[in-house]
Amino acid sequence: MFSEYIITNVVLRNIASKQMRRAETVIYRAGCYIILAMIFFIGSNCYAQTNSSINWQTFLSRNDMLFDTLTTKWEEGIFSGNGLLGAMLYMQDANTLRLEIGRTDVTDHRDDSVPALFGKARLPIGHFELQPEGKILRNTARLDLWNAEATGKITTDKGTIQWRMLTLSQPNAIVFETKTSNGENDFGWEFRPEVSISSRTRFNEAPKGYVANPAFELSKNQNVIYCRQPMLAGGDYSTAWISENTSSGRTFFISVSIDKKNSSVADVVSAVNHAAAGNLKQLVDTHRRWWHQYYKESFVSIPNAQMESFYWIQQYKLASATRADQPALDLMGPWFRYTPWPAYWFNLNIQLTYSPLFTANRTELVNAFVQMFDEGKNNLKRNVPLEFRHNAMAIGRSATRDLYSPIKVFQQLDTTATNPDLELGNLTWCLYYYWMQYQYTMDESLKEKLFPLLKGSINYYLDIMAKGEDGKWHLPYTYSPEYPKGVTRDCNYDLSLFRWGCETLLKIHPDDNLASTWKDVLKNLTDYPTDANGLRIGRDVAFSQSHRHYSHMLMIYALHLMNWDQKENRQLIRKSLEHWHSFKGALQGYSFTGGASMYAMMGEGDKALNYLDELLDRFIKPNTMYLETGPVIETPLSAATSIQELLLQSWGDKIRVFPAVPASWNDVSFENLRTEGAFLVSAVRKDGKTKWVRIKSLAGAPCVIHPDMDGMVMIKGSNAKLTSLGNGLYSIALRKNGEVILYENESDLSIKIDAVHPGTGKANSWGTKKLNADQK
To answer: Which of 44, 70, 674, 731 has a Cα at 20 to 30 A from 9?
Structure first.
């Protein structure tokens, strides 16, 4: 107001007319209020504008994948995608480049008389082969993360072929551009269609009567060549490409379309014509703008070159594999490879796949996951036995996008039931991540859409539970995913999900007509079965052999029903975790991400880091993909979640900043990581101390935070009040879009968010190297 007073009085002294004085005073007062409002707005938001100095292109370039040589292995190839269409580039043989084409929704659609893993499976499309005129002498490549494109150079004894590959964000097309020297102007280019059949037939005997789809048909429409693949169930899918000569080489535009009722040919021909008719530079510029905006949604830099690069390749992989308006992400994404698992898996895989998107502030990519469950509710009802369909829902171990996968759990064990038939908790666990989408966005419409789905999944538990002589509610025989002979009563996998579901339903609608029942379950549900070694598989089955899945410890992670804040449970948590990993034989990649996340929850960053290092060294492939018998995309993505949990956690209605930073990580920066309650958090750690933390509220939810500061914490911005709760915890009353910064020393506010020194290891550590290839 002081500045307003000065300005107004200066005006008054220079205006003679009383009427003019009044008019000018009003104008200047209004102007001053606007100026003051702008000053307040800038003051409360300046931290977001001034505390970052990231050179994104330079930063991401140190995390690019480099290939000293391409090999004949899919898991050592270089990949691109736009959330639907994808390409994987590797070698067919020593002298032929292979461009594998995939599209997530190219699936069969036969009726339910054929098991879904055959009759509704992902289908192979085919690949292109580039055959140089000469003998390949050298073959290098680079994945440019910032621009989401791959480049490379083939040197032969006759010349060179420089290439660039990208899957355009729009239109739906792959671009493969070449520049050649004279000796390689006439390199070969040919499409090799695959037989249209479920790849599960390579690993399991096909059902009686199951045969491949009809043979493909190659045709041409003016300059467009296309391959039409008919399907026995109707419709077809088609791959089309067009080649354009340039002054220095050739450019190929490739697309795939599918139509399950009519023909896809017209659509795919239009797609490649549209791409080829466009200005390539403009198409690339549009593509790059999308990716540049995507990356800037959050930032993480850690002093571990290999792990930082791995993290950012997963961010690239996620947006290459899924988008908000595209199908949900299955086990392989848009990069087809022969696999016994050509569908979705619901007892861990899809949950871990989507887990890193929340904290990374990329919640829009979760929309496809949410939508799949919204659209599949009728089949979720069909999946339960007839007598429970009036109120219950479930899903079995695996299914396609329609979510049809029946189970049969009753109060008395059905002796014909297989292990997958008894996986009762899968739907509830999937819906936990639906709930996370609500928790991280605070979008009330999500909560209301989730409620009937979650209520249906919990109703199945209510329908089959029974009260024992001890006065406690008990569950009948169900199956703990993947544990050998894991059929048991009071299965910990189901008890934890049953408990979480009842708690969450009460949070959504505490006045529902079943609220008293949910409360009774929470009060009287039997305890988790334990023994001297920790948590059991269930009442009838001890944990006594190697097991890659942490299904019996789901109440610890990811549900956090049993957590490190509960001092009375700490011994049980530690004992159970150590006992799980004491059996080595069956442990696989996600065994180590699960262990890392549990140690991160315990605040033991060094142990978590050891688990992650072992994962990267033993299980992750050179292009950061993960294979068992076939591709299973969830493991590297869940490792990205574990890395996030070293830096930020928000379970239990508390935001924890740097809760499990390894001792060797003295400098860390992150910006706009998202937490439950819809907060964006940024922080800088330097010389082993947290220098400042910025919090922005996107929804006005209550905020309790542990900022990892030992001294007197001060606050700036949004006129918010900071209240100490003891033990390093503070509450902050933040309105929607309010923003504050916490700090101890004013001078630390000049430290900007930026890339930290990469520390140990070499930059660009992912990709195939000549040494690695020779050794293999």
So the answer is: 44
Mean pLDDT of 716-740: 93
Predicted TM-score (pTM) of the model is 0.93
pLDDT of residue 17: 41
Could you give the CA distance from residue 427 to residue 435 in angstroms, rounded to a whole number?
A: 12
Strand pairing class (398-399; 96-103):
unpaired
Residue 375 CB neighbours (<10 A)? 12
Count of C-beta atoms within a 10 Å radius of residue 771: 10
Rounded CA-CA distance 194/227 in Å is 11
| Per-residue tokens: 52 | 């970052």
Q: Are 496 and 528 in contact (CB under 8 A)?
A: yes
Q: Counting Cβ atoms within 10 Å, is residue 226 exposed (0-12), middle (13-18) or buried (19+)? A: buried
Q: Which helix (H) or strand (E) holds 279?
A: none
Confidence of residue 12 (pLDDT cuts 50, 70, 90): very low
Residue type, 570: R
Query: Rounded CA gap, 282 and 182, in Å?
Result: 28
d(CA 246, CA 224): 17
* Inter-residue contact 227 to 193 (CB < 8 Å): yes
Determine the Cα–Cα distance for residues 288 and 164; give it in Å rounded to an integer: 14
H or E segment and range at residue 41: helix 18-50
At a CB cut-off of 8 Å and minimum separation 6, what does 503 contact? 518, 522, 561
Sign of the Cα pseudo-torsion (747, 749, 752, 758, in order): positive
Phi, psi values for residue 139, rounded to 5°: -150, 95
Residue type, 680: L
pLDDT digits (tens, 9 = 90+) for 662-677: 999 999 999 999 999 9
Query: Encoding tokens for residue 534?
Result: 């920790």
What SS3 state is found at 386? helix
Q: Report the distance separating Cα 127 and Cα 169, nearest Å.
A: 21
Residue owning tokens 């639907």? 84
Q: How far apart are CA 90 and CA 702, in angstroms?
A: 50
Q: How far is residue 466 from each of residues 97, 323, 489, 512, 517, measured CA to CA in Å?
A: 61, 43, 11, 22, 13
Confidence of residue 52 (pLDDT cuts 50, 70, 90): confident
The secondary structure of residue 82, as a DSSP letter, is: S
Q: Could you tell me the sign of the dihedral formed by the alpha carbons of 553, 394, 331, 112, in that order?
A: positive
Q: pLDDT (tens digit, 9 = 90+) per residue, 680-696?
A: 999 999 999 999 999 99
Question: Helix, strand or coil for residue 618?
Answer: helix
Which residues, in sequence order, are CB contacts of 338 under 8 Å at separation 6+? 124, 199, 202, 630
Q: How far apart are the first and last CA of the chain?
A: 74
- C-alpha of 273 from chain center: 33
| Cβ–Cβ < 8 Å for 308, 63 | yes
3-state helix, strand, coil in the chain (%, to 5): 35, 25, 40
Contact status, residue 160 vs residue 177, Cβ threshold 8 Å: no
CB 693 within 8 A of CB 657: yes
Query: What is the 8-class DSSP label of residue 753?
Result: B
Q: Give me the mean pLDDT over the 202-218 stretch.
A: 97
585: pLDDT strictly greater than 50: yes
> Is the previous residue joined to 360 through a cis bond, with omega within 30 degrees of 0?
no
* Residues in Cβ contact with 241 at an 8 Å cutoff, skipping those fewer than 6 apart: 128, 191, 224, 225, 226, 252, 253, 254, 255, 272
**pLDDT tens, 330-371?**
999 999 999 999 999 999 999 999 999 999 999 999 999 999
Give me 582's structure tokens: 């004491």
